[in-house]
Each structure stands twice: as C-alpha cells, then as structure tokens.
Amino acid sequence: VMEDIGAQLHSAAPPLLVPSPNRSQPLARDRGKRMLSPAASGAWALQRLEAVGALIGVTLRTGSTLPFELANVVWLALLGEAPSLQAYAKVDKSFTELVTQVRDNSHPSCPDMDPEACDAVYDCITFAMHRSDGGSTVELKPGGASLSLTYHNRSEWCSLATAFRLHECDAQTAAVRRGVAQILPLEALVLYTADELERLVC
Description:
The protein is mainly alpha-helical.
C-alpha cells in the first residue's frame, strides 16, 4: 500500500514531490532525495500535500515508514525551522556555490575581481530565476528579468535569490504541516531534530 502511495505522489500532475537539483550534479550530496514541488500550488495539489502530512503523522504514531526519502531542508521546514543556505546545499549544490562566489567575490578562476571584471563574468545572470524544479522563471524584483547582476548590486542579488529559493515552497510546507496536525500536535515535533524525524518516517 505504501509503495502505491509513493508512486501516486511521484506521478501526480503536477507531481507533489520532485527530485532535487542535486540529482543532476555528480559530486553533490543526497542526490536521491526528493523535495516538495513548487509547482504544486493549486487547491487540489495542496489538499494532496495535506494528505502527505497526515501520512507522516500516521507513520510517527504507528512506526511504519514511507516509500520515499525527503531532503533534509523539507524536514527542517516541517519542524518550523528556517533552512540556511548551507543546509540548502544538500538539495542544490550549484546554487549555493554560485551565491557564495558572488557574495564573497570568490570566483574560482578569478577571485577578488574588480567591478569591471565582475560585471563581465556575471553579465548573463539577471534578477530572475527558474524555480528549483526547472519550471517557470520568477523575477526577484520588478523588472528583474532585464536587470543584470553586477559588482555593485551583487549583495542585493544574493539576498533576493537566497530568500526566493529558501521560501519558494512555503505554501507546500504549510499544507504538509496542516496534514501532520490532523494526526498529532505539531508541538510534538519539537522533540526531534530534522535527522531524527527523517529516520523515523523514512
């Protein structure tokens, strides 16, 4: 039964769970883990995510396990904790490396670039990003699609890009938490760390 549920979650349209970007990054961690889909935003999808939360609650009560593995940032979010950029590396290593390089002006081939060189290197990057599932492009600020990343606006870009990625699945996380709350009090989750919760459920 649990295997059938897992298959339905992965094949739903839109899918409720999607592979993390790390799946296509050979040297990344947790390449087999899944994350909540930012595309699962309609009423039907959010209701199904509440059902996922209820299943998580059932597994905590019964000791059964679910037939899929969620990424660490999902468990952190379910605990009500805000994932850090460092934690997000477990689902998207390339993104976190890019943000760090831009923020610290530490491009591996030319660290400590002057403004002109920095502008040339990052000219192809704008204040618009694809969702983590490779879906639609979202502007980080009004007019962002036509605004290039530069030496002088790189701090703003890093802040906006990081906030977008860390919070793009807030609605989906809230739906899962509502589902968990149907089975057991959310306060009970504070007894666990994200790693402990993952081991109990998966």
